[in-house]
Specification:
mainly alpha; 17 helices; two-stranded antiparallel ribbon; Serine Threonine Protein Phosphatase 5, Tetratricopeptide repeat
Length: about 475
C-alpha cells in the first residue's frame, strides 16, 4: 500500500538536512541516525522539507482550494494542468497526492517520537531538549493529519459529523494495512498533538537558518489550534486561541503600504514578514524544491501561467483596496486575463519565480477566526467581530464596515486569504455551495453542498494495496 511503501523507504537521512543546506550523511540506518540528538533533530528537520513538495504546500494543496473554491480558474496559456480539479472531475486515479507526502512526514516524526520515548542517553542532552523536539514533531504530525482530513474527508461540522470516515491514524512507523479511523478520532488526534506542541514548544524557533518563521513555535501551535477549533465549530476555543496569538503583539497586521510585492517595497516574497506566524520556506537547496513546478511559476504569465485569477474574487475589492493591486494582466497578449501576485518569487534570489515562501498561518486569519467565532456565540473581553474585521479593512484601504453579519466575515476571509489555500475548505465547513460566474468550463460550473465531491477520492494505489482501506462514497 502507499502508506506501507512510504514508510518502508524512509531511512530519515534522505533530505533530512537539506533544509539547513548541509550535505546529507550517507549509508546510515534509521537506528544509527536516531541514536543521537543531532540525528533526531535531522529527522524532524527532514519532515519540514516535505511541506515544500509539489503535492503539498509547494503547489497542489494550495492551488486545489482556490481553483475548486472559485477564486482561481484555468489560465489562457494553460498547459492542461488542473483541468480535472477545475471541473471537479477527480477520480481515484486522478486525485490529490498529498496522501503520500503527509504520510511520509508522519512516518518521519513517528520514528523520532518513538526514539525519544525509548530514551536517549547522551552527554549534554537534557530531557527538556528532547521534550521540545518531541513537541515540534507533534506540531508537524498534527498539521499533516489536519490537512489529510480537510482534503480527503467531508467537513466534521456537516453531515454525519465526527462519526464519518476519517483517515488512518498511524502513530508507529511499521508495515501494516490500517483501516480508516472516524473523522472524530482524527480531529481528536490533531488537537492532542497540537496541545502537546503548545505545551512543549518555545516562543522562539529551535533552529537557525534564514527564515525564523519556517519553524514551529508555541505561537504557531496556538494559531493552528485556533484554525482547527474553527473547523470543528468549537467557537470559544477558536476565539481563545486566536486571542492568544493576537494578544502576544508579535505579529502586527500588514499596513496598506506593506501589502505589495518585495520589488515594490512590500511583504510578498520576503522572508519573515511581520504577519506570518508560520510559513513554508522555499529554497533551491531543499530536496523537495520543485524547480518550475511551484506556486510562483504556475501563477505567473511569465512562467507557466496555468492558474489564473477569477473575476469572481477580483470584483469583490474596492478600487481603494490595496489587495486589488496584487492582480495583474499581461498585455498585449492577455489584457482580459488576470493572475495573482502573492507568490512573486524571492527577493533573496533576484526575484526568481522558481522559489517562494508559502504562508501557512498569518495574524490576519486570527482576527477573522475570532470574528467568526464571536458571531457564533463566543465571548472575548474587549473584542468585537466588527472591530476585528475592520482591523484588516483599515489596513487595506477598504471602507470600514458599519455593522457586521456572518456573510461579511466569509467575504472578508475570501478577500484576505485568497490564493493561500482556504476557499474550498471554507465553503465546505460552513455548508455553502460553490457558485461561479467567471467560469470557462463545460461542466460542473456550480457544485451543491452537500455532495460527495467535497472530499477527494482515496488514491487507487492505496485501495489496491490495502484491503482494509475504504473508498469515499461516490467514487
Amino acid at each position: 500500500m502507499i502508506i506501507v511503501g512510504t514508510i518502508a523507504f524512509l531511512v530519515l537521512l534522505t533530505a533530512c538536512e537539506d533544509f539547513l543546506y548541509q550535505e546529507p550523511r550517507l549509508s546510515q540506518t534509521t537506528e544509527l541516525t536516531l541514536s543521537t540528538y543531532d540525528g533526531l533533530t535531522a529527522g524532524v528537520v527532514g519532515a519540514y522539507g516535505i511541506l515544500y513538495d509539489t503535492w503539498w504546500y509547494g503547489r497542489d494543496f494550495v492551488v486545489y482550494a482556490d481553483l475548486k473554491g472559485g477564486n482561481a480558474k484555468i489560465g489562457p496559456i494553460s498547459s492542461g494542468r488542473y483541468v480535472t480539479e477545475y471541473l471537479w472531475n477527480n477520480t481515484p486515479n486522478a486525485t490529490a497526492w498529498l496522501w503520500q507526502d503527509a504520510y511520509s512526514a508522519i512516518a518521519r516524526v513517528n520514528n523520532v517520537l518513538e526514539a525519544i520515548e525509548e530514551g536517549i542517553d547522551e552527554p549534554g542532552v537534557e530531557q527538556e531538549d528532547l521534550d521540545m523536539l518531541a513537541a515540534e514533531a507533534k506540531f508537524l504530525r498534527g498539521l499533516a493529519y489536519f490537512d489529510l482530513a480537510r482534503i480527503f474527508c467531508q467537513p466534521i461540522t456537516q453531515g454525519a459529523g465526527a462519526s464519518q470516515l476519517g483517515v488512518p491514524i498511524v502513530l508507529r512507523t511499521e508495515n501494516a494495512e490500517p483501516a480508516r479511523n472516524t473523522l472524530g478520532e482524527v480531529y481528536d488526534q490533531v488537537v492532542q498533538d497540537l496541545l502537546d506542541a503548545e505545551a512543549g514548544l518555545p516562543l522562539d524557533p529551535m533552529h537557525g537558518g534564514t527564515d525564523p518563521k519556517a519553524w514551529a513555535t508555541k505561537y504557531a501551535a496556538e494559531a493552528l489550534l485556533a484554525r482547527v477549533y474553527l473547523y470543528m465549530g468549537q467557537w470559544q476555543n477558536a476565539a481563545d486561541y486566536a486571542t492568544k496569538v493576537i494578544s502576544s503583539g508579535e505579529f502586527p497586521v500588514y499596513t496598506a503600504a506593506e501589502y505589495t510585492t518585495w520589488d515594490n517595497g512590500g511583504v510578498w516574497g520576503i522572508d519573515a514578514a511581520s504577519e506570518v506566524i508560520f510559513e513554508v520556506y522555499g529554497a533551491e537547496g531543499n530536496s523537495s524544491h520543485n524547480n518550475w513546478d511551484g506556486l510562483a511559476y504556475i501563477s505567473n504569465p511569465n512562467g507557466y501561467g496555468d492558474v489564473a485569477a477569477s473575476r469572481d474574487v477580483y470584483d469583490l475589492y474596492e478600487d481603494t483596496d490595496v489587495r486589488k493591486g496584487l492582480f495583474r494582466n499581461h498585455p498585449p497578449d492577455y489584457v482580459d486575463a488576470l493572475w495573482y501576485l502573492k507568490y512573486p518569487g524571492k527577493a533573496s534570489v533576484d526575484g526568481s519565480i522558481r522559489v517562494e515562501n508559502i504562508p501557512v498561518l498569518r495574524v490576519s486569519e486570527m482576527y477573522l477566526i475570532r470574528a467568526e467565532a464571536l458571531l457564533n456565540g463566543a465571548s472575548v473581553s474587549g473584542a468585537t467581530p466588527l472591530a476585528d474585521v475592520n482591523m484588516i479593512r483599515n489596513n487595506r484601504g477598504a471602507t470600514p464596515l458599519g455593522s457586521i453579519a456572518i456573510a461579511d466575515v466569509y467575504r472578508e476571509r475570501r478577500m484576505e486569504l485568497c490564493f493561500e489555500g482556504h476557499q474550498m475548505f471554507d465553503l465546505a465547513r460552513t455548508g455553502r455551495s460553490l457558485t461561479r460566474t467567471d467560469f470557462d468550463g463545460a461542466v460542473n460550473k456550480d457544485i451543491p453542498f452537500p455532495d460527495y465531491r467535497w472530499a477527494f477520492p482515496i488514491p487507487q494505489q492505496e485501495m489496491d494495496a490495502n484491503e482494509n482501506m475504504e473508498q469515499n462514497p461516490g467514487y
